[in-house]
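Hey, I'm writing a tutorial for new members on how sequence and structure tokens pair up, and I'd like a real worked example in the thread rather than a made-up one. If someone can provide the structure for the chain below, I'll link this post from the tutorial.
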Amino acid sequence: MTAIVIGASGGIGAAMVEALRDEEIAVRGFARSFIGPDHLDLTDEASIAAAAASLTTPPTLVFLATGLLHEDERSPEKGLAALDAEWLMRQYAINTIGPALVAKHLLPKMPKTGRCVFAALSARVGSIGDNRLGGWYGYRMAKAALNQFVRTVSIEEKRRNDRSIVVGLHPGTVDTALSKPFQGNVRADQLFTPSRAAVQLLDVLDALKAPDTGKLFDWEGKEVTP
């Protein structure tokens, strides 16, 4: 098994790299902050293409540990009046378009036969059926679009390799910079360290079967309604 982790500079991504190495799995990490051949910027397709071209071994696991919920003074919208076109486009660029471009360039690098997994971090708040609170417009919309992309590309990928698995993953609330401003109401036993989250998600990935492709799963391995 050979693994690729996108967003490996910290949080769940860095923890996933360590978890894979603990399992003695060959893994290579990419991130925007990395310099040289391991640099990958979701908003720069040329850097994604260059990262894909640098691979010497077909990866059997691609784990995309990226996401944007807040940035600088921007935060999730509480109501309709807070909608801003530039911020919405930024949300889509990181949460939807970037992962789609990663799939465009990395899925063709994965084996054409045998089990292989492409997994992208999504979120339960991207579920349309599970939306009972409203708000967080840009993040919800972008993650819902990501879930649709996962479903759509899984159908095409199945034609290339009938044992391929393309999924979205909801990691729960993880103690990272992304969730830091929103941890106040999270129970202590539901706030995971990045290391614990990585191990939980790796267990979910290990248990996936070919019929699971195109779906969204939470950290317990339970399917989340799109």
